[in-house]
Amino acid sequence: MSTVAEKLQRKSQRSAPVKQVRLKLVYIDFWSAVKLSFLVAICLSIALLIATLMVWIVLSSLGVISQLDSLFAEILGEDALSLAEILSLGQVMFFASIVAVLNAVGGTVLGAVSALIYNLSVRLTGGLLVGFTNN
After folding, report:
1. What is the pLDDT of residues 43-102, one digit of tens each?
2. How high is the pLDDT of residue 29?
3. At what angle do helices 30-62 and 64-76 cross, to 10 degrees?
4. Which of 135, 133, 96, 100 is nearest to 15 (CA)?
5. HEC profile for the chain?
6. What end-to-end distance do the CA atoms of the chain give, in Å?
7. Which residue(s) pair with 20 in the sheet?
8. What is the separation of C-alpha 19 from the centre of its chain, rounded to a whole number of angstroms?
């Protein structure tokens, strides 16, 4: 009398035949491409904001911004614009937010245009042939 574990072990020892399937990608749904590219662009925008914040914190804690401010004050004179005011956390994050929004819009448009171009090019090329196995 064999146990269930022994039966499963014997079953896993048998080699399963490898079956290859060739599929052709002939259409990318436009709205699926737009939604996916929007989500990827939003993730990249959030990563951009976090990276900007981290870089600003490191530069500020190391005193790089204040050293640059004093260097520009020496070169341009005391009545020159303060670099510390221009590179304040609010100003930097505001600029990064604008770039993040533009990145999200541009990434979404790029994904939509890419889906449209692929769908149009399928008419000429017949699609993309992709092979799969069950391994």
Report:
1. 999 999 999 999 999 999 999 988 988 888 888 877 777 888 888 999 999 999 999 999
2. 95
3. 70
4. 135
5. CCCHHHHHHHHHHCCCCCCEEEEEECCCCHHHHHHHHHHHHHHHHHHHHHHHHHHHHHHHHHCHHHHHHHHHHHHHCCCCCCHHHHCCHHHHHHHHHHHHHHHHHHHHHHHHHHHHHHHHHHHHHCCEEEEEECC
6. 32
7. 133
8. 34
**Tokens 């937010």 map to which residue?**
97
Q: How far apart are CA 2 and CA 118, in angstroms?
A: 56
Tokens of 2: 């064999």
Strand partners, 132: 21
* C-alpha to C-alpha distance for 24 and 22, rounded to whole angstroms: 7
CA 66/CA 86 separation, integer angstroms: 11
- Give Cβ neighbours of residue 73 (< 8 Å, ≥ 6 apart): 80, 82
Q: Which residue shows structure tokens 């260097």?
A: 71
Contact call for residues 107 and 38 (beta carbons, < 8 A): yes
